[in-house]
């Protein structure tokens, strides 16, 4: 990512809430977002614009307690629910908060998962998670350390659709019969995932009138 413009960021100003708005709290003044999972289910927020490349970051403190079965995350997607989406992920698997999964999709095809040992419990405090995405390179960083780097290979597709920044908390225990995130236990609900100091690219938004 030689283009310095891809590293310029700004605080996120507005978000859209896709479902359960009462379980999502956004304070633009403090640049913080709270997502809660409880009897209402979870919630998902996203940026109000798509971006074509750039650097995305947030400080995140994952929910405390027994979070088995839950997925909490921060990721890019050209459109959630579109079967031909491009996507770049950080996903926390509730069964073990010392791990995080990275992945990316091109035209709906993923299967590029990698599991990373964080070296800490993601619920113990805030840590910085960064996605740097360019035409030929993706980097995932945690606390300023590159944990994964993917370069475009000749003849292979690479994420090139404009993408929203998303985040959600949801019950994923039905996937692989609990093999992915564990069975849902729920003994410590409500589960609260905290985001702060959220930044998006400064100059690569495509629908600038929606998030200005």
Please give a quick description of this structure.
This protein is an all-beta fold and 212 residues long. It has strands at 9-11, 15-19, 24-27, 32-37, 43-47, 54-61, 70-77, 87-93, 99-105, 114-117, 127-133, 137-142, 145-151, 164-171, 191-201.
CATH class group: Mainly Beta
Task: Give the biggest sheet.
Answer: 8 strands, antiparallel
How many independent structural domains? 1
Shape call? globular
- Poorly predicted runs: 208-212
Overall pLDDT score: 93
| DSSP summary, beta strand count | 15
CATH architectural group = Sandwich
Percentage beta strand: over 45%
Distance between the termini: 25 Å
What does it look like?
The protein is mainly beta and 212 residues long. It has a single domain, classed as Jelly Rolls, CATH 2.60.120.200. Helices cover 0% and strands 45% of the residues. The protein is built from no helices and 15 strands. It has strands at 9-11, 15-19, 24-27, 32-37, 43-47, 54-61, 70-77, 87-93, 99-105, 114-117, 127-133, 137-142, 145-151, 164-171, 191-201. Strands 1, 3, 4, 6, 11, 12, 13 and 15 form an 8-stranded antiparallel sheet that branches. Strands 2-5-14-7-8-9-10 form a 7-stranded antiparallel sheet, with no helix packed on it. A hairpin with a 5-residue loop joins strand 8 and strand 9. The two termini are 25 Å apart. This is GH16 domain-containing protein. GO terms for molecular function: hydrolase activity, hydrolyzing O-glycosyl compounds. Keywords: Glycosidase, Hydrolase. One of its GO terms (biological process) is carbohydrate metabolic process.
């Amino acid at each position: 990512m030689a283009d310095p413009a891809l590293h310029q960021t700004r605080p996120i100003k507005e978000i859209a809430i896709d479902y359960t708005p009462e379980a999502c709290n956004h304070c633009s003044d403090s640049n913080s977002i709270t997502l809660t999972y409880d009897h209402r289910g979870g919630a998902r927020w996203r940026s109000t614009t798509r971006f074509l490349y750039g650097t995305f970051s947030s400080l995140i403190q994952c929910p405390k307690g027994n979070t088995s079965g839950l997925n909490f995350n921060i990721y890019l997607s050209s459109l959630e629910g579109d079967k031909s989406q491009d996507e770049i992920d950080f996903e926390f698997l509730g069964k073990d908060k010392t791990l995080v999964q990275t992945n990316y999709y091109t035209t709906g095809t993923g299967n590029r998962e990698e599991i990373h040992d964080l070296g800490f419990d993601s619920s113990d405090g805030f840590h910085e998670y960064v996605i740097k995405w360019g035409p030929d390179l993706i980097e995932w960083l945690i606390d300023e350390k590159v944990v994964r780097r993917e370069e475009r290979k000749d003849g292979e597709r690479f994420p090139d659709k404009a993408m929203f920044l998303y985040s959600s908390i949801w019950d994923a225990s039905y996937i692989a019969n609990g093999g992915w995130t564990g069975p849902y236990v729920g003994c410590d609900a409500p589960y609260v995932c905290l985001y702060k100091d959220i930044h998006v690219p400064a100059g690569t938004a495509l629908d600038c009138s929606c998030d200005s």
